[in-house]
């Protein structure tokens, strides 16, 4: 019997293992989307509560457990944003202000994701200037590592719409970034 089946059968040890395997990545993604530690904790917890009570709906043929959890997380994050109507803040300024993201696993530290280099700061600031739908699509695609079909499911749109949002977001980012930054990121720049 695999871990998911054991968890669905009420095995608390299996639930703890699944939680431990996925909580850091989900929290980090929630933090990137919500930019608030308490909201990210709430969204992550709500994700596990929903997932554990709806494990029968998980279909491994449609995608991985990690992707299914990310789709649930996006829904929880959106609900929090609708309730709170908070604007987006700069993750970099939160980190600089001492609001570090707690994480026990060294491989999941936000500092490793968004190193405090000049290039990444410029990219992050440009990302903040994108329309919400494009920004959300780019964060989920590149930080959340969702495939386009999973992205479409998370965004509640078609795969072609998900691809369009990512492509539009990338194009807008390229317009916002200066030539040197784009070249430093490894993209070709026409003269």
CATH architecture of the largest domain: Orthogonal Bundle
- Cα-based radius of gyration, to the nearest Å: 18 Å
CATH superfamily of the largest domain: RNA polymerase sigma factor, region 2, helix turn helix motif
CATH class of the largest domain: Mainly Alpha
Low-confidence stretches: 86-92, 103-117
Helicity, as a percent range:
55-70%
Q: Could you spell the SSE succession in H and E letters?
A: HHHHHHHHHHH
Which keywords apply here?
191 residues, Arc Repressor Mutant, subunit A, 11 helices, 69% helix, single chain, 2 domains, Rna Polymerase Sigma Factor, Chain: A, mainly alpha
Descriptive overview:
The structure is a single chain. The chain is mainly alpha-helical and 191 residues long. The chain folds into two domains: 1-86, Rna Polymerase Sigma Factor, Chain: A (Orthogonal Bundle); 110-191, Arc Repressor Mutant, subunit A. It is 69% helix and 0% strand. It has helices at residues 3-8, 12-34, 37-53, 65-84, 91-96, 110-113, 118-128, 132-143, 148-155, 159-176, 179-184. Helix 2 packs across helix 4 (65-84) and helix 9 (148-155) packs across helix 10. The radius of gyration is 18 Å and the shape is elongated. Mean pLDDT is 77; it is low at 86-92 and 103-117.
């Amino acid at each position: 019997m695999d871990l998911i089946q054991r968890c669905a059968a009420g095995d608390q040890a299996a639930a703890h293992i699944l939680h431990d395997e996925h909580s850091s990545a989900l929290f980090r993604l929630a933090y990137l989307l919500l930019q608030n530690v308490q909201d990210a904790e709430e969204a992550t917890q709500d994700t596990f509560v929903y997932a554990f009570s709806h494990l029968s709906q998980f279909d491994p043929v449609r995608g991985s457990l990690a992707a299914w959890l990310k789709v649930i997380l996006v829904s929880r994050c959106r609900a929090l944003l609708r309730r709170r109507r908070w604007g987006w803040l700069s993750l970099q300024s939160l980190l600089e202000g001492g609001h570090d993201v707690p994480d026990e696993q060294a491989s999941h530290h936000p500092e490793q994701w968004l190193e405090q280099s000049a290039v990444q700061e410029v990219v992050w600031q440009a990302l903040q200037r994108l329309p919400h739908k494009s920004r959300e699509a780019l964060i989920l695609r590149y930080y959340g590592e969702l495939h386009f079909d999973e992205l479409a499911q998370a965004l509640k749109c078609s795969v072609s719409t998900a691809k369009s949002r990512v492509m539009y977001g990338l194009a807008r980012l390229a317009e916002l970034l200066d030539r040197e930054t784009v070249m430093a990121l490894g993209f070709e720049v026409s003269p």
